[in-house]
Amino acid sequence: MDKLGSMSKDGASSSSTKRKSRRPKYSKFTQQELPACKPILTPGWVISIFVTIGIIFIPIGFASLFASERVVEIVDHYDKDCVPLRYTDDKLAFIQNSKTNKTCIRRLTVPKQMKSPVYIYYQLDHFYQNHRRYVKSRSDSQLRSKSDENTTSNCAPERNSPNGAIVPCGLIAWSLFNDTYKFSVKNKQLGVNKKDITWKSDKGNKFGSDVYPKNFQSGGLIGGAKLNSSIPLSEQEDLIVWMRTAALPTFRKLYGRIEVDLEANDVVIVTIENNYNTYSFGGNKKLVLSTASWIGGKNYLLGIAYLTVGGLCLFLAISFILLYLIKPRPLGDTSYLSWNRSASGVHIFTS
């Protein structure tokens, strides 16, 4: 019995030692004893925070709206008007017929002075560049390096041609926008600067200077614009702009810049080559001429958002001030808690 008792004691002591050995080394971090800031949100602090946010946000909102109001923008919805009358009921036949004349003349009146640079955008509606299969149909490695020319596994159905791999491959490149615009004012041709219309990171890192178009748009079905095979992809900025896919079905992409001022009431003659097929999926095409401000183009949403948040904060601050003055409550008063009310029927028992 003594032997068994000693064995049991030894076993208990050894198990006790094992349990103790599993304890983490004491530190203020593991025991959550680090010094911490525990601010008490008194009525004064809460009201001050809301007032501060309101005072900051409301002027920013007014400044944003004022800047947006100063932006001069001309939007021309030309896709329907650029279809001949005999093709009004069959626009798809017009756009798919290579023998029809796609040239269209538009006259745009400048409402206010537009100081240079005047940005040229094309806008597409109901075009889902964010579709999963469309977004995946590209080869980033092929775009970057000539050595990956044959890396086209993700580019279906625009992967290969009878003459070899397509460069650039994929549906995104294949559907490149191909409407063109020429501008003139008072019989004077306006130059369109297409340089530096892309993100520098895209041009420098995503498109190689040794990669040239090859077998592009050589199949039976042409999707969009063709590319100059003697110019590397890093210099084909229209393609680079198009390859940055849009997140929403309505989007604008930069076409170029007019680097002269346009005076009020000037009539801009726009010669459009209406080539891009948006009629098969019910899309719309628009030409946009716009100046810019410190917040970019015309956009009232940002200013309205700042004013809404700032106004709401001021409203809450005033409400809390009135509530504090009409029905004040001492700091730390627990009489409002449910377990301290006799009507609740809840009692706290202490030993």
Automatic annotation (TrEMBL):
Record field: compositional bias (Basic and acidic residues):
138-149
Keywords in alphabetical order:
Membrane, Transmembrane, Transmembrane helix
Q: Where is the composition biased (Basic residues)?
A: 17-26
**Pfam family membership, one:** CDC50
Extent of Low complexity compositional bias: 1-16
Keyword Chloroplast included in the entry's annotation:
no
Q: Which GO terms describe its cellular component?
A: endoplasmic reticulum; Golgi apparatus; plasma membrane
Region described as Disordered: spans on this chain: 1-29, 138-159
Q: Which InterPro entries match?
A: CDC50/LEM3_fam (IPR005045)
Q: Where are the transmembrane segments?
A: 45-67, 300-326
Q: Where is the composition biased (Polar residues)?
A: 150-159
Q: What is its main location?
A: membrane
Q: According to its UniProt record, where is this protein located? A: Membrane
Q: So what family is this one in?
A: Belongs to the CDC50/LEM3 family.
Cite the PANTHER family for this sequence.
ALA-INTERACTING SUBUNIT, CELL CYCLE CONTROL PROTEIN 50
Protein's recorded name: ALA-interacting subunit
